[in-house]
Input
Amino acid sequence: MDLRRPNRPVIGPKVRQVGFVTPDSAAATSSSSIPAVSAAAATSAGSPPSSLSPVMIPPPRHPSTEMSNPHFHPVGSYNPSEQILGSPPALSPSRSSRFDADGSDFGGDDDESVALSGVGGGMTPKSSLLMRQPVTKTAPLVSETRKRDSNVSKGKGEGPSAAPKEKLTKAERRATQEAQRAAKAAAKEAAAAGGAPSVSKQPKPATKPATQQKKDVPSGSGPLQPLAPSGSIEKKQGKKEVAAPHPRMQFDDMTKVGKLKKRAVVNQSEARNRVELFRHLPQYEHGTQLPDLESKFFQLDLIHPSVYQVGLQFLSDKISGGNARCIAMLLAFKEVIQDYTTPPEKTLTRDLGAKVGSCVSFLIECRPLSVSMGNAIRFLKNRISSLPHNLSDKEAKSRLQSDIDRFINEKIIIASKAIVEHGVSKIRDGDVLLTYGSPSVVESIFAYAHGIKKNFRVVVVDSRPKHEGQGLLRRLVERGIHCTYTHLNAVSYVMHEVTRVFLGASSVLSNGTVYSRVGTACVAMVAHAFRVPVLVCCEAYKFHERVQLDSICSNELGDPDAISKVSGWKDLNYLDGWAQNENIQLLNLKYDATPSDYVSVLVTEQGMLPPTSVPVIIREYGIERLWT
Amino acid sequence: MPDVSDFILKLQRRRIEGSHATARQTAELLRSVVSQTRMPYTNQAAALLDAVRAVGEQLIAANPVELAVGNIVRRVLHIIREEDLSSSAVSFEGLMISEKSDDEDDADHKGGPVLSAAAVAAAARSTLRPRSLQTLLEDGPLPAAPSKSSSAGDSEGKSKSDKSAVGKRLKHSVIEAINLLIEEIDDCYEDISEQAVEHIHQNEVILTLGRSKTVKEFLYAAKQKNRSFRVFVAEGAPRYQGHVLAKELIQKGLETTVITDSAIFAMISRVNMVIVGAHAIMANGGVIAPVGMNMLALAAQRHAVPFVVVAGSHKLCPLYPHNPEVLLNELKSPSDLIDFGEFSDCMDFGAHGGAPLMHVVNPTFDYVPPNLVSLFITDTGGHNAAHMYKLIADYYSADDLVIKRKSTSSN
Output
């Protein structure tokens, strides 16, 4: 995912590149040059395609070694990084000293291999190098080679004893772990292939030390999951940023739904007449949860009252809108943290994390989380888990609370101010600006633009069933802004006079799709058809690495009864009692996905970008911004 | 005529809504106009045309947006012209020798003195049509220009002025033809829905917007042929007639899902076909349809979903649209959208120089350009948008496109 991030000062990612990149080259080189020996390489050769994908080419770091032989480019790039790895600044003195001895040994090894590779890949190596040659070259098997190296040296009786094996640096451990994975894959591969005897023999020494390490190093789950970086914080980060986004709960999976129901606090009865297409989304009878929850108020000692309150507000739609919900949730969590005391024989980091987790699952039951909330929760959990252990409860709590305040302030409030400044620059005198629904950021852009005496008019487009635009209309008119109000169907009628379209977003996904209030896509489409620029205003904390092409795979369903009743049309009661007829379903979608080609520009606090730059923002800025 | 003023009042007050009802009542009114017209001895067809035109002009002015009125007026005018020519053809048989009018060359061209009534009727019909490739191919070089037809009618009237029986016959046949027109308007649903099975197959997902009787009958017909399919009904703000349609559909056992208009874009990727009704079909193939249709058509185009318009032939309008979003539109009361009571405090006229800060736009119609329409299904079959002008030429004569008495007097 983030293979092309060369300039990070942290060690972790660099190493990760090595591990991820080299299998191909190793397969290519070693299998061609030393077919007889490199069994491990041969096994690894089967798994990835032998052609280097452009993504996998690591950035050059030590040109001197690489330039000499382009064919061994990966090998060269691997070696220096290994050397860099040998002297990490963060290491404790005791470790580093030990590592120095160890590392120099390896360093020598590497140099040797580089020299060898410089001589020529097609050459058959000498017998003394026979073991080392494939070893140093096969990059995913770095640690394997190391192990084997030590094994070999043990057999030769010349190398260091078993002592360094036990006290490995984190980097080494990680490498080991990776080797273990590679070995596993190799074993699988071998099993599948029928396995030549040499093949089955080779990986074994690698797996053995790896299993020793298992206790202190959590093993990665998938074979494709790249290695964890060295520090504990970094490890978390690395996993978060590298791993594909966690698959969402699919509500057509009966076993999972059953499990969920057992855990559930809120009693939710399944809606009748569920829409077949949306079986994977939760479809509950609306209106039943609230009284149920209210009656349970005194039984739920697990849930903090402030979270409970926020949950009820979500459920009854008292609080809606990405920013408002996120802020409400974070403030509730702040109170949870305030009232929290670590139970005896538990650590704050673990217990508080679990507690926040249970609060979150309660909130999810009330209403599925928005992406912004999900990101905020990730932030909070990350902060909790990265707290130093030696902090007292009070310190930890105050630190977390200030973290939450900082998040709200920086990511939401200051960010929207920055967006307002960017957005206002696109409003000229005489403009007719169209907006849909009631996006808070867009509203403040209009207010600010009006405040600096820009002369413009606003078209507020609204739709059923929530009619959020009416609130916006009222607030804008009270400020003295000229407004035109209409419904969504008439958008192509009003689009003739519009010069800019300002939209809000619930989230912007990695492929540039804007996930927003249902109807936004329609407005953007019509604006696109009328050649009117569409500006989507969104804080960068709402960006998400997920991708989505349509609005069906992931969405949220609202109350179907809201469709059958039309406010202001009392005689429109044709759909009363619809639940009795199994032929009819009412579908109240809450979000839709606007394709990125309808969006002219994204206005974020980072500036104004094309929607194609979202992954760049997520990669380059997202992690540093969100997790520190 | 009390009938006429009554009807005009109804049109002005928008008491009659829906192009079907309007078309039918217009035809009935014109029938009574024709029957009440006193026939002069000379120039009977012209008298009829004038009478119909006079009424028609008022009707169109009463509700210019209801294009069906104009369509029916033009249809009736066309009928009068046609009947006049065919009745004159009948009179040919008796008056062959006295025939000295400029229609003669037409008859000569058809080949000699032995003329059957049908042949002359065909020739007469072809004079009513504007020149087109088809008529040119059918009839060879036709000397009679389309503008000639009215003068032909005049001359016919002169030539047989002595025969009052012919005049009676003309009036009678015109009324007969109008009756046929009314029948056609009533039957258009059946004719259209007969074609449903050709377009709807098993397990199809169909999206429609608002409520159209034609669409309803179309879906019913497919259901009756035991096709099982699913219908998404967008409710169609601001009148939410989609609810009515949904209710009607579930009564026939169709699987129906009601969606909000805002979910159109989200859902259209799973839809196989969009079937909608129309308010009027213009000569260029553009469609005047209930508001929201343009959005739906754009979404359908984006996802390459066929956008099918079903409409009776009385909705075919021979006019070309110019700025139809504004000129062929009607703004309804804001009370459909917002509650006056709720926003009364925003309607402060005094604060900002007498102009209110708030406007509410509630248009009735949308214009769907022809390139967004995949297919038209009328009672004469399926047609391409580009073919519409030809279809329209079959129903209307070129002289009647502008219904103004000034223009006729100058003729």
Notes: Residues 97-115, 140-162, 407-411 of chain B have pLDDT under 50 and may be disordered. The longest strand of chain B covers residues 205-209. The CA atoms of residues 134 and 267 of chain B lie 43 Å apart. The two ends of chain B are 26 Å apart (CA to CA).
